[in-house]
Amino acid sequence: MKGRVPLVRALASLWMVIVLAACGSGPTSGTTDKPFAGKTINVLSWEGYQEPDWVDAFEKEHGVKVQVTYAGSVDEMFSKAASGSLNYDLIFMDGGSVTRYNKLKLIRPIDVGKLKHYGELIPNLKSINDKHVVSDGQTYAIPFAWGSLPLAVNKDKVKEPVTSWSALWDPKYKGKIATIDDANNQVATTALLLGYPDPYNLTDEQLAGVKKKLIEQKPFIRSYYSGFEDGKNLMASGEAWILFTQGPTMITDLAEQGMNVEEVIPKEGALVWIDNATIGAKTENPDLVHLYIDYLISSEVQARLILKTGYGGINGQSVSQLTQEEAKKAHMDDPSYFDRLVYVAYPESFEKRVKLWNEVRAQ
Predict the structure, then answer these.
(1) Comma-separated ranges of CATH 3.40.190.10 domains in the chain
(2) Contact 269, 207 (CB under 8 A)
(3) Residue-wise DSSP of 68-132
(4) What's 234's DSSP letter?
(5) Is the pLDDT confidence value at 312 over 90?
(6) May I ask the CATH architecture of the domain 151-264+344-362?
(7) What is the pLDDT of residue 25?
(8) How far is CA 112 from each of CA 75, 119, 143, 282, 297, rounded to the nearest angstrom?
(9) Which residues contact 197 (CB under 8 A, 6 or more apart)?
(10) How far, in Å, CA of 35 to CA of 28, rounded?
(11) What pLDDT does residue 32 have?
């Protein structure tokens, strides 16, 4: 969230802190029984997921310490977890990576019966996620946050409706298209456009088709960008009229700056990442980690996460703690939104995709 926080938001934040400390769906208030007092939860996480807004209350209530190590990329996350230099109790990762960790026995099954908020997960989001995190009847990950990768369209410049990823190949917008410098997402999205049934399990022939299509696109591209601010600046300056975004928050930020910008989920679908919480295989305090996960997926914490980061939440009841505008901004007002999204899964070969993208950029 950017900009000055108005008084009403400050009061709301104060109220939420009180809720987190006292509400029955968070840690139990007033008890002198702290069976985990003195314990530490070692967490491997993305930035923004372990904020004092919600971590402090849990630490105080249970007399524990949440020790966080941050990673800046998927590869760094995996490297830290696999190195064994520190046994992480809780590891956050996109659902598509869960199989990779599970194959190396870096994570352990989660007892969903110990999670009283598990039944509050948004049903179709949970259904999408379960296909990638449930194996042999055991659940290895619990969703925590999500975000889609839609198109942004400047409606002052592009008058006709944009309905397909093919807009990124349209000669009408030559020099006014910006797209992400990201091998995996570029390959998957182009595969959707080409009608391939599984954008994360491509044959060599299909990968060749993707490469050819991306090379055809190059003459129309104004810029390949790599960061949120870079992408937003291209739109705000008018250099780009159509943008392959890194998330809806880019669009809402531009709208708040006064741009007439529209989010588009193309007819072929758009990608969605769902980050999950997993339990490290060598944790010595599984009951404490289950307790913490349950706290993190509670509606109170999820509402705080949405307001703090702009990401989508996974607890359907968190909507009741948001204004109508806040819920709409995070796509928490429309459960059917997930039905138009394609899960970011583990691909057939990261190496092949990176090589393909490098060859496209070198043309």
Answers:
(1) 7-145+275-332, 151-264+344-362
(2) no
(3) EEE-SSHHHHHHHHHH-SS--SEEEEEGGGHHHHHHTT-EE-B-GGG-TTGGGB-HHHHHHHHHH
(4) H
(5) yes
(6) 3-Layer(aba) Sandwich (3.40)
(7) 45
(8) 28, 9, 12, 19, 12
(9) none
(10) 13
(11) 58
Q: Is 37 within 8 Å of 64 (Cβ atoms)?
A: yes
Mention every residue, 6+ apart, whose C-beta is less than 8 A from residue 6: none
For residue 62, give the 3-state DSSP assignment: helix
Mapped onto helix, strand or coil, the DSSP state of residue 2 is coil
**Rounded to an integer, what distance in angstroms lies between the CA atom of residue 197 and that of residue 194?**
9
Max Cα–Cα distance, the chain, nearest Å: 68
Q: Which CATH number is associated with domain 7-145+275-332?
A: 3.40.190.10
Quote the Cα angle for 245-248-254, to 5°: 85
Tokens of residue 78, six digits: 């995996």
Residues linked to residue 177 through DSSP beta bridges, in sequence order: 221, 242
Over range 249-277, report the average pLDDT.
Answer: 95
The one-letter amino acid code at 225 reads Y
Distance CA 161, CA 114 (A): 48
Of 305, 295, 293, the C-alpha closest to 332 is: 305
Taking a C-beta distance cutoff of 8 angstroms, is the pair 274, 343 a contact?
yes
For tokens 């840690």, what's the residue? 27
Q: CA 15, 18, 23, 25: dihedral to nearest 10 degrees?
A: 80
pTM, 2 dp: 0.81
Give Cβ neighbours of residue 260 (< 8 Å, ≥ 6 apart): 154, 155, 156
Whose tokens are 């989010």? That residue is 263
By C-alpha distance, which of 151, 116, 93 is closest to 293?
116
CA-wise closest residue to 273 among 90, 70, 95, 49: 95
Most confident region among 35-44, 247-256, 347-356 by mean pLDDT:
35-44
